[in-house]
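hi! just following up on the protien thing from before. the input was this:
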Amino acid sequence: MLKYIFMNMRMVIMFLFAGTILFSATAKAQRLVFVYANGMYNKPTGKFNDANYNYGFGGEVGAGVGLLSKTFLTGSVGYNSFNNTVSGVSNLKATPIKFGFRQYLFSRILFAKVDAGVAQTKAEGFDGSKSKFTLGAGAGVKLAGLNLGIDYNTINLNEGGQNWIGWLAFKAGFSIGL
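and the predicted 3d structure came back as:
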């Protein structure tokens, strides 16, 4: 009887050991966490462009955590500055904090993303900043740590005449899997 129990315990321990090795090898191959940084050229669209905001620059840093094999939960913090060409009209600065999802397609080269959050907006020359709702969606490619992408971002200003402003963000940066 004791010999039978000892033999079964050995089988259980061997099974757990093999499963642990298999799981850890799979986890390492998938790179479940990554960090990234991007520089951006922003081109205002629609009413935002009509209000003489003709270009902007920005940057963002963020991280992603794997949920499924090709789906990641992401979070980012950014900074955007938009230039206005009319004398006496202030430039606009926005600092978004967003959370969303990134879905990889085709062997983790092409990805699509959506995110939402809050952006602190401030017009130069005015006191105080305001928190506004922001949305974004885009696509990109990841080639050996280099990220290239395009996003469409919006902020709900909820102020007279202009509720939503939007812009295309052309992004280039890098990512590192941890």
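Confidence is low (pLDDT under 50) at residues 15-29.
The first strand starts at residue 33 and ends at 45.
cheers
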